[in-house]
Design goal:
The complex is a heterodimer of chains A (387) and B (267). Chain A is α/β, with parallel strands linked by helices. Chain A is 23% helix and 29% strand. Chain A contains eleven helices and 17 strands. Chain B is built from eleven helices and eight strands. Chain B is globular. The relative contact order of chain B is 0.14. Classes of the chains: A alpha/beta (387), B alpha/beta (267). Chains A and B meet through helix 5 of A and helix 2 of B.
Amino acid sequence: MTENAPRYDLVLAGGEVFDSATGASQVADVAVTGDRIARIAPGLAADGREVIDCAGRYVLPGLVEGHTHIFAEVSKVGAPPDEAHLHRGVVAACDAGTVGASTFAAFESYVAGPAKMRLVNFLNVSVLGLIDFRFGELMNPDTLVIEDALAVAADNPHRVRGFKIRLSEDVVGHDWRPLLKRSLELSADADLPLMIHIGETPEPLPAVLEMLRPGDVIAHCYTGKPYGILADGKVLPEVYAARERGVLFESAHGKSNLSFKVAEPAIAQGFYPDVITSDTSARNWRGPVFDLVTSMAKLRALGMTMEQIVPRVTSAPARLLGLDTEGYGSLVEGGPAHVTVLADADEAVLPDAAGNQLTAPRLEPEVVLLAGERVPTVPWRGLPAGN
Amino acid sequence: MGTRTGVHTGRAALRERLRHGRRVVGTFLKLPGTDAIELAAQSGLDFVVVDLEHSGLDERTAAGQLRHAALLGLPALVRLAAVDPAQINRLLEAGATGVQLSTVRAGAQVAALRAAVRYAPVGRRSISLAHPSAGYGAGGLDAYLAAEAADPPLLVAQIETADTDDPLSELLTDAHGEPSVDVAFAGTTDLAVSLGLATTDDQAPLLRRVGEIADAARAAGVTLGGWAPAATDQTLHRYGLTGAGYLVAGSDLQLLGAGLRQLATDN
């Protein structure tokens, strides 16, 4: 090897490199060779064939989105995964219940199978999935077919990582308990978690929480709709008790399920989501959600630190989705080179899903690597036209 | 299966859960009206048993309740003291998920029950399509017969005497050794009285008898069922029903009474 031969294909130089497990960060270089992280250390820039200056940037494992809707053109809520996620810094994502057992084959053939980014899903307990939000998928409770859901999960362990039930009144009516019970039974049979969409549930949250088991996931923990996690501005003791038992909470912003007026006091009281997710969909990826990095920026503006945020968009969702074993959600020497470099962007007016807004610096993906390959990024969709 | 109605899906769902060894929990309904049916569906009970043995309910009221339960997708069985084929037919046509027959002592009772709930060639039930369980005939006779053959009424045999005329195995299996009912149900209250235990705290004879019923159920390949005043582990242990897959806990009257007494005490 001559003195001038570059040892690494690419060096991301001088960025603030995060340990996704602890959230701690240090300034270092990240060297990539082929599809792997070759080294993480200071002073590697001289050995890179290509060097990208990341000074003042956050260098993170490729982001993992734990809750999205990407069954484009089949479901009315389906967004295109590459445009909505990959080009905005997300390298792995979980479709949360858009797909049901009866539509799974199409999802596999046309969306998840061909995708370059890693896609998994939480299968809707209704065989119909979320095709059209005007018509609740469980209004006919017979669409919850345990055998069908179990068969799809058993045949597709690479894809199905849990189940999803939407517990809103317009989906389940007042007789939600039997449906939740059957959903819990089926996820127990498959040994997978159940994700429960809250917001406009027929009864207060504690009635739901007491039925859940460790590992189950409450989606939309900061919803401003009844019934949420707060009472008189305080996080309910039942919510802390559920967390204590191992029930997880994720933020899932969505078109209508994150309110700054809930998130701000909850964060002030130290109640953070276990997983930060965007709930991106065709209804919100041009606003008010935009993308996962914008959800991160909102929670940062409401009081969370980057140290708290980073594990919740990398290692925590990777663990929830069983993607940690494939190397997602962490940045380690020898691991796959999935990297997202974020920069602080100018202040912008950021809306929530409940008619409130705040002004705060955004986060912008500058470099995205998927297995060592540079992925093009696209500008924030909230920028004024022509910008 | 153009005539597979909610009655058939309810039977299939209940059987599927019994087959998977999951305990299903229901209660007896003794009060008229449909409120308790709706409350049971809403609260997530797995089924109800409309009680025509020990209640003031008449057949017409019960039929209305069964129709309502079928519409809600709540499996609703009916408890009867004797096999009256004409009455059983009317209740099944109204939407009963199955029949729970009390005080089964002889194989002939079970044979009569099976004949009353099944169409030929298995049984002798008289057929009509002019009722909700057949979708009012919209799908035709063949489709309805196929739906009934695929998901016949659930049968629950209450065993609640210290001894029976025929051995338990003959109550629970047919001549070919196939299960003749879905559930062998320990009627624990009658059983206690039959065993002379009503005034004693000695539960050992009751537990022994329930154990015999459980053993016979296992040997016959049918689900163990039983009644207990509550569904807690402690209560089930006391009644020897920890292995019960089909549990009837209390009744609407008992639950209402407990609530009212609590209310009076609270004040």
